[in-house]
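Thread: quick sanity check before group meeting

JM: Hey all, I'm pulling together slides for Thursday and realized we never actually wrote out the predicted structure for the chain we discussed last week. Dropping the sequence here so it's in one place. If anyone has concerns about the input, flag it before I start.
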Amino acid sequence: MNTTLALLGMGPGEIILVGVMILVLFGAKKIPEFAKGLGQGIKEFKKASSEVSNELHNAMNQEPPPASPVRTPAPTETAAAHPPATVPKA
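JM (edit): ok, ran it. Output follows.
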């Protein structure tokens, strides 16, 4: 814990002072409500983060759908090979 305090540049005296200031500003009744809301927010963030991670993992492991076979166009028949049917005139 000393490394965290050293990184923040705060000693035990400053931590106590900040705690007292928070208690005075918010009151003893609001602090548990604030902590509960903060905890729920962190829980929701972790849940959403794991869902996104799982979706990405599943998408990367999923095999791509098989490619549809490419059809070559059928050869067109010429008009000379099959002349149009004629209707006899009456």
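AS: nice. The chain has a mean pLDDT of 79. Residues 30-61 form the longest helix (32 residues).
JM: adding both to the slides.
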